[in-house]
C-alpha cells in the first residue's frame, strides 16, 4: 500500500519540526498555507510541493483605501416601512452590518436606486423621493397611507466577507480589516494583474497558486449583531457596479432594475425559478470573470506554476459546470468536502487535470478546543465522502487551518493517519477509476447541468428544515451504484430525454426552480415529452410537489404519470378514495414493518400509525422511512395506484403503471441509510430492472458495495461508527459474509 502522496498538509510559520513529523505520519507530499498563516523558510525547506493561497481582490489596503469607490457593490433592500400619512422616511442601514456595508452615495441614487410601493408593486417616481445622505435615510413624498415602502440601494462592501468570517470566528481582535476590490474598474484591474505578476516573481518557491478564489464573493451579508443575514452560496448579489450595469445595457439592449437583484427580498436565490434578467446577468458576469481568470492562469503557467481554483469564497462567475470552463486552462479545482454531495460537486468537474478535496474539520478553535474530540467529525466527514469517492474519485485530499491546533489532539492525528492511508489505498486498488454504475439517472430542474450537484442547496453542505427532504436525494445518489447527470426543463423541451437515461427524478416545493413553476403551463411540450417517454418504457420519480402549478383543475401536471395529485382546496367537494396500503413490495423490502402496523393497514387502509412507517413528523423508527417535512393533502388519482405508504390522508410513497413505464411518487427523503436503500430500490423498480438489483447489493443498508470491474475488485464499506455485519450476493448467486469494524472498508477480488 502506498503510504505517501495525494495529501496536502496545511501549516504555518515557526512550526517546521512538527510539520515534518506530521507530514511523514500523514504521507503529505504538499504543504499549503491557510487564511491568516504563512510559510516560512524552514517549512519551505522540507522539500514538499508548495501551495500558496492567493487572494486576487483583497489584502492590499494600501491600494483600495485610496480608491474606495472601487470596492465590490451589492444591491440591498431595506426593511418595509409603513406610511402613516403622505410622507414616509426609510432608513437604509437598519438591519445591516455597518462594518461590512456602506451606502454608495457617489453614483446618482435617482439613476441607480429604486423606491417601491410594496403594497402595489409600483415604482415610486424618482421626483417623489430624496436622499438625506447624512442620515442615510430616504424621504418619500406623496405616499399612500398604510402602504409599505422599501428602498433598493447600492452599497459598497468594505470588509471582505470571508476574511470577516475568519476574523470573527478566530477573534483576530485589532487586526486590520481587509477591504475587497472590484476588478471591473480598469485601474483596479491593472493593479490586480501587476500585483500578481510581481508576486509570481517574488515567490519562486511556490509550485501551485491556490486562487482562493477570484473576484466576486457569493452572497454573504451580516446584520448589526454580526450574525449571518443573507447567505446564498450561488448568489450573484455582490457583483454589481454602476459601470457594469451600464455596460450590460449596451450589450443586452435593456437596463436591469435594482429589483432584478433584490428580487422582492429573495435576492435571486437558486430556489427561485430563474428569470431572463437573472440568467442574462449570470452570462454577462461569467464572460467577464472568465476572461480575467484566463489572464491570471496564463500568467501562472508562464511562471512555471500550476493554477488551482478553490470552489468556494469568491467563486461566483467561474461556473465550473457551464460550457467553456475547460477553456480557462486551470490545472485543478479544490473544494471543501462537507458530505457526499459536495464531494461529487468537486469530483465531477471536467476540464482540469485533477481535483482535490479539503476535508473537515477545519483546524480552527471553534472545533479544536479543550474537551472536544475533533476525530468524531473527521471520521463522520470521511464516511460521507468515501461513498462518493468510490463513485467519482477526487485525486487528492487535504485539510486547512492551523496545524499547530490539530497537533494537540493525538486521537485526531491518528484518525487522519488512517483516513489518508485508506484514501491512497482506494486509488492504488482502482487506479483512480470510478465504481461501476448500473443505471443512468437524470435530475431534472430549471438549472440543469450548470448546477450539477448544487440542487436543493442554500449554503454549502448545510441543508435546513425546508431543504433536507430534497437534499437527501442527492446525498443518497452521491454514493449509489448509478450514474448521475443533471438536465434542465429546456433540455427536455428542445431535445427530449436522452435514449440512455433509465430514470428521471424531478420535484421540489411549488414555484421553485426545482419543481419548475409556470414552465408546466407555458410549455405544454414538456409534459407531452415526458408522458411519451414514460409510456414508452421510461421511469419518472417525483419528489415533494413535482410538476406543480394549478392549471386546468390539476396541481401536479404529471399526476397521470405519478398517480398522485395534491388537494389545493379547490376540489374539496370531490371525494378522494385511498386504496389499501401494500405493505410488501420490492421497493419496501428492506423496511421493517411492525406487525401491529400491518394489521392496522389492512383494517384502515391509508390510516397508517406513525410508529409503523416513519412519517412526516420527525425521525423514523429503526428500519422505517423518514419522509421529512410532510406534503399535506396528497391523494391517489384513482384506486389503481399502488399505495406503499400513507399517513392520515396524505400519500408518502406510491407507484403507478403508465403504459410500458412507471411513475413513482415520494413525498421526501432526507438522507439516511434506510432512505438511501429505499431510493435505490425505487430506481431499479421504476426502470424495470428488479432482476439486476441483487448482484453486488448489501443485505445491511448501513453497508454499501462498490464494484470495480476493470480493476477486478469489489469493496464493502461500513458507513457507521459501530461494527456492522452484512451479506453480499455476487452475480453468480454465491453469497459472501462480512463483519466490519466501525468505519471499515473490506476488499475482495473478483
TrEMBL record:
Residue ranges constituting the Lacto-N-biose phosphorylase C-terminal domain according to the UniProt record: 696-747
Taxonomic superkingdom: Bacteria
GO biological process terms held by the UniProt record: carbohydrate metabolic process
Residue ranges of every copy of the Lacto-N-biose phosphorylase central domain listed in the record: 440-691
InterPro entries associated with the record: Class_I_gatase-like, Glyco_hydro_b, Ig-like_fold, Lact_bio_phlase-like_N, Lacto-N-biose_phosphorylase, LBP_C, LBP_M
EC class name: transferase
Keywords recorded for this protein, A-Z: Glycosyltransferase, Transferase
Enzyme Commission code: 2.4.1.211
Residues in Lacto-N-biose phosphorylase-like N-terminal TIM barrel domain copies: 5-434
Keyword Protease on entry: no
UniProt GO MF annotations: 1,3-beta-galactosyl-N-acetylhexosamine phosphorylase activity; 1,4-alpha-oligoglucan phosphorylase activity
Gene3D superfamilies for the chain: 3.40.50.880, Glycosidases, Golgi alpha-mannosidase II, Immunoglobulins
One Pfam family per UniProt: LBP_C
Protein name: 1,3-beta-galactosyl-N-acetylhexosamine phosphorylase
Amino acid at each position: 500500500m502506498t503510504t505517501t502522496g495525494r495529501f496536502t498538509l496545511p501549516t504555518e510559520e515557526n512550526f517546521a519540526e512538527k510539520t515534518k513529523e506530521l507530514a511523514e505520519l500523514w504521507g503529505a507530499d504538499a504543504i499549503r498555507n491557510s487564511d491568516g498563516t504563512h510559510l516560512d523558510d524552514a517549512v519551505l525547506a522540507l522539500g514538499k510541493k508548495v501551495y500558496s493561497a492567493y487572494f486576487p481582490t483583497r489584502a492590499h489596503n494600501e491600494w483600495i483605501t485610496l480608491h474606495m469607490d472601487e470596492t465590490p457593490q451589492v444591491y440591498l433592500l431595506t426593511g418595509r416601512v409603513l406610511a402613516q400619512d403622505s410622507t414616509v422616511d426609510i432608513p437604509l442601514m437598519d438591519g445591516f452590518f455597518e462594518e461590512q456595508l456602506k451606502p454608495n452615495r457617489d453614483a446618482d441614487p435617482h439613476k441607480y436606486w429604486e423606491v417601491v410601493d410594496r403594497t402595489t408593486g409600483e415604482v415610486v417616481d424618482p421626483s417623489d423621493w430624496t436622499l438625506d445622505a447624512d442620515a442615510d435615510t430616504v424621504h418619500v413624498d406623496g405616499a399612500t397611507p398604510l402602504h409599505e415602502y422599501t428602498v433598493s440601494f447600492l452599497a459598497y462592501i468594505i470588509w471582505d466577507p470571508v476574511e470577516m468570517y475568519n476574523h470573527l470566528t478566530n477573534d483576530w481582535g485589532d487586526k486590520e480589516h481587509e477591504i475587497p476590490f472590484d476588478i471591473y474598474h480598469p485601474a483596479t484591474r491593472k493593479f490586480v494583474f501587476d500585483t500578481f505578476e510581481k508576486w509570481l516573481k517574488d515567490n519562486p518557491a511556490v509550485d501551485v497558486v491556490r486562487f482562493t478564489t477570484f473576484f466576486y464573493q457569493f452572497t454573504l451579508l451580516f446584520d448589526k449583531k454580526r450574525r449571518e443575514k443573507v447567505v446564498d452560496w450561488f448568489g450573484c448579489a455582490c457583483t454589481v457596479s454602476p459601470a457594469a450595469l451600464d455596460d450590460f445595457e449596451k450589450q443586452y439592449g435593456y437596463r436591469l432594475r435594482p429589483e432584478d437583484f433584490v428580487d422582492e427580498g429573495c435576492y435571486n436565490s437558486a430556489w427561485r425559478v430563474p428569470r431572463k434578467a437573472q440568467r442574462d446577468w449570470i452570462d454577462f458576469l461569467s464572460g467577464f470573470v472568465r476572461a480575467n481568470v484566463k489572464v491570471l492562469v496564463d500568467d501562472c503557467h508562464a511562471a512555471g506554476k500550476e493554477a488551482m481554483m478553490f470552489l468556494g469564497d469568491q467563486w461566483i462567475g467561474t461556473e465550473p459546470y457551464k460550457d467553456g470552463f475547460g477553456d480557462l486552462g486551470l490545472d485543478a479545482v479544490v473544494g471543501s468536502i462537507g458530505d457526499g454531495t459536495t464531494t461529487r460537486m468537486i469530483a465531477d468537474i471536467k476540464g482540469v487535470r485533477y481535483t482535490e478535496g479539503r476535508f473537515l474539520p477545519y483546524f480552527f478553535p471553534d472545533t479544536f478546543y479543550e474537551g472536544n474530540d475533533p476525530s468524531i467529525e473527521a471520521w463522520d466527514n470521511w464516511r460521507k465522502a468515501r461513498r462518493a469517492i468510490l463513485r467519482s474519485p477526487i485525486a487528492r485530499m487535504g485539510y486547512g487551518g492551523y496545524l499547530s491546533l490539530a497537533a494537540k489532539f493525538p486521537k485526531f492525528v491518528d484518525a487522519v493517519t488512517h483516513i489518508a492511508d485508506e484514501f491512497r489505498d482506494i486509488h492504488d486498488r482502482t487506479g483512480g477509476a470510478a465504481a461501476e454504475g448500473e443505471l443512468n439517472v437524470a435530475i431534472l430542474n430549471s438549472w440543469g447541468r450548470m448546477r450539477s450537484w448544487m440542487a436543493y442547496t442554500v449554503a454549502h453542505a448545510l441543508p435546513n428544515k425546508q431543504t433536507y427532504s430534497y437534499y437527501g436525494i442527492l446525498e443518497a445518489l452521491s454514493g449509489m451504484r448509478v450514474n448521475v447527470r443533471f438536465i434542465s426543463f429546456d433540455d427536455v423541451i428542445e431535445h427530449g430525454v436522452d435514449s440512455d437515461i433509465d430514470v428521471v427524478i424531478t420535484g421540489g416545493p411549488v414555484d421553485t426552480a426545482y419543481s419548475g413553476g409556470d414552465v408546466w403551463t407555458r410549455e405544454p411540450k414538456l409534459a407531452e415529452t415526458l408522458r411519451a417517454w414514460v409510456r414508452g418504457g421510461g421511469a419518472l420519480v417525483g419528489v415533494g410537489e413535482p410538476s406543480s402549478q394549478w392549471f386546468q383543475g390539476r396541481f401536479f401536471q404529471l399526476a397521470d404519470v405519478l398517480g398522485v395529485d395534491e388537494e389545493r382546496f379547490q376540489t374539496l367537494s370531490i371525494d378522494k378514495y385511498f386504496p389499501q396500503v401494500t405493505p410488501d413490495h420490492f421497493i419496501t423490502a428492506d423496511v421493517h414493518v411492525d406487525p401491529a402496523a400491518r394489521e392496522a393497514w389492512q383494517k384502515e387502509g391509508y390510516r397508517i400509525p406513525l410508529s409503523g412507517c416513519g412519517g412526516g413528523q420527525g425521525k423514523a423508527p429503526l428500519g422505517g422511512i423518514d419522509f421529512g417535512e410532510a406534503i399535506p393533502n396528497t391523494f391517489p388519482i384513482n384506486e389503481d395506484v399502488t399505495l406503499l405508504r400513507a399517513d392520515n390522508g396524505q400519500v408518502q410513497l406510491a407507484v403507478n403503471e403508465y403504459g410500458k413505464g412507471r411513475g413513482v411518487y415520494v413525498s421526501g427523503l432526507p438522507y439516511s441509510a434506510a432512505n438511501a436503500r429505499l431510493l435505490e430500490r425505487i430506481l431499479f423498480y421504476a426502470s424495470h430492472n428488479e432482476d439486476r438489483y441483487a448482484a453486488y447489493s448489501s443485505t445491511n443498508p448501513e453497508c454499501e458495495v462498490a464494484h470495480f470491474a476493470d480493476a477486478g475488485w469489489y469493496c464493502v464499506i461500513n458507513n457507521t461508527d459501530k461494527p456492522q455485519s452484512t451479506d453480499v450476493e455476487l452475480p453468480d448467486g454465491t453469497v459472501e459474509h462480512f463483519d466490519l469494524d466501525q468505519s471499515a472498508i473490506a476488499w475482495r477480488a473478483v
